[in-house]
Structures are given as structure tokens and as C-alpha cells.
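Page 47, continued from p. 46.
Same chain as before, 176 aa.
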Amino acid sequence: MVDNSYSKSGFTLVELLAVIVVLAVVMLIGVNAVLPQMDRARRNAVAIEMNGFIKSAQQYYIVKQMGTFVLDKGATCCVSLDQLIAEGQSELKKEEYTGYVLIKNNNGTIQYGPYLEKKGTFYINGTDFKINDRNYNESDAKSVSTSGKPNFLTCKAVVDDTSTSIGYCGYSGDAA
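Result:
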């Protein structure tokens, strides 16, 4: 005798669709919780790189001071990331970052005004010299697409050992 009865132990299409919808909602909630943390981590990474970039510029200036370089009182000098990399003072990759540091002699006190941009993502602008002797953090990192990004075109000249005094070695653009 042939058994023509069907087994009813499978899932219906509606049940499968309901499970897929629930999983999609859970994934949406998870993605919305993770994305801000990823953005924050990227900003924090740029801030950490900025702090290392400032240390590189400070070390570069100290080495240059041991030579014949003198930054006159009231003078400002610009040192590019490319120059720091070429001199072995920075390990940042110029394919990923662009930047410069304004070094200013404010009546005997040396101030550093850095600008660092991770290409296409975030930048930190300290060229207003408002932040001194403190570390940058992720709240200082701004999206490249926001306004307020400085209008620096290039850091044209760098410190060299051939001059005994360089008052202003130059940058193009506005510092604010």
C-alpha cells in the first residue's frame, strides 16, 4: 500500500520571512551601535598621530638648533611632513598623511602650530597656537568635509643648515 500523506514538519514561507526580518532589524541595531565607535576610533588614531607629529617637529627643531639655525624672536618657520620624513624625524606615511608645523618664536618661547590631515578622512588644525602643552584627542579631529579647514597650499620652504638666521622661511595661505 502506498502512503500519500505529506509530512508537516517543515517551515512555511511566512515563518522564514519573519526570521529574516527579525535578523535584519538586529543587524541594523548592531551596525548603528558599531559605526560611531569606528568613527571615534579613526578620529582617535589621527589625534595620536598628531601628538607624534608634534614630537617629531620638536625633535627636528632641537636638532636644527644644534647646527647653525636660529629662529629670531617673533619669527615663524614652516616645516612640512615631507621634510620631517626625509630627515628621518617622522614615521608617518606621506601616502596617507599630509601636514606641516609652524614653529614660532614667541619672545623666546617656542610654539608649535601643527596641521595634520589623514587624506580624505579627518584633519586636526592647531595652527592658531591655542593648544600648548596638551595632547590632542579625538574631539579635535574634524571631518575633511567640514568647513574651517585652513587654506594652506603648501609649506614652501624648510629650515636649512646653511643660514645662521632665518627669520621667516615661509608658507603660503592663511593660518586661520
